[in-house]
Predict the structure.
Amino acid sequence: MSEAAAAWYAYGVVPASTQPEGTGIGSRPVEVVSEGDVAALVSAVPADEFGEASLRERLEDRAWLERTAREHEDALERALAATAVIPFRLCTVYESRDHLREFLAAHSPALADLLARLDGRIELGVKAYFAEARVETAEPQSGRDYLLRRQRERDAAEEAARFRVECAQASHERLAAAAEEARANPPQPPELSGRTEEMLLNGAYLVRRDDGRLADAVAELESLYGPRGVSYEITGPWPPYNFVPPEVVG
Amino acid sequence: MTQGSRLPAARSGSGPAPAQLADVLERVLDKGIVIAGDIRINLLDIELLTVRIRLLIASADKAKEMGIDWWQGDPFLKRGDRDGSALESRLRRLEERAGLPTEEERSER
């Protein structure tokens, strides 16, 4: 594992008892660096590839970014299957294990509290998509006919806009009621979602691993809004990315 | 209901397709704890043509247009707001560099 000039890529924090498993960045083995009650999941990576200037360049490389993001995610998901996980943001890199240990020692109580809160929980994503119904009508027979139709179209557009907001909010509230914590993130545009329908809701929900209430809520929403053109998609389980603070407190 | 693309059972062998890249990037680039580390990369400074910028700006603006903005209290998005104008001007530069019509040019059409 100790390559000539190694840096330490850290995926996240787990309880100290966690057994390392599988591979991560660049197919390198995932190891555990523990300090007291907590541990970091890490891989030894080449320091030149993960230096600041080099990273800056590589993060602009779509293929490298995709591969690295998935390797980061996979390493965390593998750990999540067995234990609580505090996910780090992509490309958290230490020059030495000692520095990483110092970080863990300095924040051990806060990290241990957070792990205790996340224990047995997973993040699920729920997205709602809206396919607006297209109304086909015959050619207008008169000017009046045409104006009436224009009016109906305007009314329908306003109604659809109201419905989108109402449905997104009601869906998020219903899902949040079935979760311990909830976040509504900005809906993804079609070029990201890969779907032609409009995304109304892009929510993340923290639930107990064995709790089926979120799936029940989705089924309920689907029967409520499905007839009006809304469909739902559940993703996950994800490490609780949306439910850790942006920085370690304490 | 469309079942999630990747439940645990699906992870080994020939399960459904892996998670959407956008879902993974949205999380690993914008969520998760930020630790200073020894190598300091501010991911906000990274341009990530099309991917990151569109996630942060295009979708947030579009949602706001739709009147969906109840996440405004979210600290991540507040940060997004603070950096919004810088990202927007960067987006414009990138679009110009890539020879794409800018937002303004598109809306003029």
